[in-house]
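Protein of interest.
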Amino acid sequence: MRLNKSIASIMIATAVPAVWLGSVFPARAALNFGDADKQFKQAAGSGGAGLDVSSDPEKRVGQIIQVALSFVGVAFFLLMLYGGFLWMTARGDETQAKKAKDIIIMATIGMVIILLSYTATYLVATQVFNAPG
């Protein structure tokens, strides 16, 4: 019980400054945006940095899938971390150890399903529609 209270207090102690900083700095950045825009135009010129800014739907969908898979990877990592933490702090409590084991197993199964669906989608996109890899 004491461990739960200390974890909750640590989470609150880190969340409050993060929320405050997240609300203050964007406001200050918005005030200085005109100067930043001038500096960007001086550094890169009117043509920009020369990056490939294409609006092909295939590339855009690929970027969205990459971002989504990144979030899935982070969620998987956090679930594994939480499950491992529960398992290590079970101290012989079978119900908590079973809960931790179930979290780890379900996270692994979810990751396998997502990777298999991505593989199937990639296979269909490259072989059937002859899209570039």
